[in-house]
Design brief:
2 copies of one chain form a homodimer.
Chain A (H helix, E strand, L loop, with lengths): L5 E4 L2 E5 L6 H18 L3 E5 L8 H16 L3 E5 L3 H9 L8 E3 L2 H11 L11
Parallel strand pairs in A: 2-3, 3-4, 4-5
Antiparallel strand pairs in A: 1-2
Helix pairs in contact in A: 1-2
Chain lengths: 127, 127
């Protein structure tokens, strides 16, 4: 079961991270998200990390990389559901997740993505 | 990281199962979903099992239980993203997931939930 599913929801993709992102899995995830953005012409990616209680510089870099890669493909990335302790750790590690949008939860992340994407903003889920 | 996150999206909850559901984790998931349905007054629960490649009678029963429990609380449960091999295994095991709605993917599951829920059907995600 070592594959993180990428769920397509309308124009957005949703990824929930529930397992430790060791090297291989993280690189696979990066590649799979980029493939999915291209395949589905997604305009936004939401990464839920509410189950992640430990974060390190590797994971911080992976999140930054995904955001940078999707931006080149014209999609925005929002990291949602960060636990307070993770935010503390990230700043203490000197990793303020530059260039990555964050939101408190999936719903707020969805609002943020909607606000970042200008055209046909009434479309959602059902389209 | 042994906690499966339950994401609230409008009137629905989304759960993606990415790890093996051993006894304790499965029972916790059951309890957490029921708690979340009550807390958020959710009208539907979607369980994505696209990352699940092996299913056994225990997992089949857990899915049936969750569907029955949420139904008592006036919420419907849809299992989405089942791999073909899992469908084959379930039927061969004699576990046709009685009483559980299924859909091919999250989007179709969302449509199914919308069709099952009669009032204020224009509400979604953003509400």
């Amino acid at each position: 079961m070592e594959k993180i599913p990428i769920l397509k929801m309308g124009r957005f993709l949703l990824v929930t991270i529930q397992v430790d992102l060791y090297d291989r899995l993280a690189l696979d995830l990066e590649a799979n998200i980029i493939d999915a953005v291209t395949k589905h012409q997604a305009q936004g990616v939401m990464i839920d990390i509410s189950a992640v209680s430990i974060v390190d510089s590797f994971m911080g870099r992976i999140l930054s990389n995904i955001a940078s890669m999707t931006r080149i493909l014209d999609a925005e990335t929002v990291v949602v559901g960060m636990q307070p302790a993770v935010a503390i750790t990230l700043v203490e590690l000197g990793l303020p997740l530059m260039g990555v949008y964050t939101a408190l939860n999936v719903e707020k992340g969805m609002e943020l993505l909607h606000s970042k994407i200008v055209p046909d903003e009434d479309a959602d889920f059902d389209d």
